[in-house]
Amino acid sequence: MKTPTLSYRVGYQPWLKENPDSTLIKYNMRDEKSWQPYVKQLDEYLKKYSDTNGTRECGPNDNNSNLVEDDVLPCRFDLSNFTAAGCGPDKQYGYGRAGSPCVVLSLNRLIGWQPVDYAPDSVPENVKGRYKSGSIALYCDGANNPDKEHIGRLKYIPEHGIDGRYYPYVYVPNYHQPIAMVKFESLPRNKLVLVECRAYALNIEHDITSRLGLVHFELFLEDKIVETKPSAL
Fold first, then answer.
1. Could you tell me the fold of the domain covering 10-222?
2. How far apart are alpha carbons 139 and 180 in whole angstroms?
3. What is the spatial distance between Cα 175 and Cα 166, in angstroms, rounded to a whole number?
4. pLDDT tens digits for 79-132?
5. Could you tell me the pTM of the whole model?
6. Sheet containing 154-157: order of strands
7. CA gap 106, 108 in Å, rounded
8. Is 21 helix (H, G, I), strand (E, B) or coil?
9. Annotated Gene Ontology MF terms (predicted)?
């Protein structure tokens, strides 16, 4: 029997609402005004996870599979692993002078969907070293050969990707959508890098034309002295 595939897209944050058609994340490390909008957008996006009412703490062997049948509370999503990796609000999510921006990756919501595991001998090479049964592995790289050369070191948080404990997605109050982050640790300065990130599970389809199972965005990290205007006498 053919495995049903996910025909939805991968999402990313920060995505600025005031410029909805742009997939460019661009800021000057030396200019707080240029990177604060991204920090504020991530603050806004992540604040829903601070509301733990109507959720439960789930252990490593727990999951959301019995939400409907047993009328239990959804699993609470913990952001502490992002903070520990330098992708929390205390470090401005890696923006600013750190020069190592963190980008949130998620799957668009599809009620009832949950990942299907690869057989041990069929895990894609891109994620083989980090793949964990039950979860959704992520892999980001430059979209083109020059971008692959410049993308630098990446850190996936958590390493195995989006935690499968939080699936299936169910439409219940205060469901915490699972997310992961990728930290771009050594981006070049003053150079545009086109990024492609893919999500991996047996039932996730990839199609470049329709952007299924993947997402594209651009990163441009400036390092320029900000000229200050002399004060009027």
1. Immunoglobulin-like (2.60.40)
2. 11
3. 9
4. 999 999 999 999 999 998 999 999 999 998 778 888 999 999 999 999 999 999
5. 0.92
6. 10-13, 102-107, 180-184, 154-157
7. 7
8. coil
9. ATPase activator activity
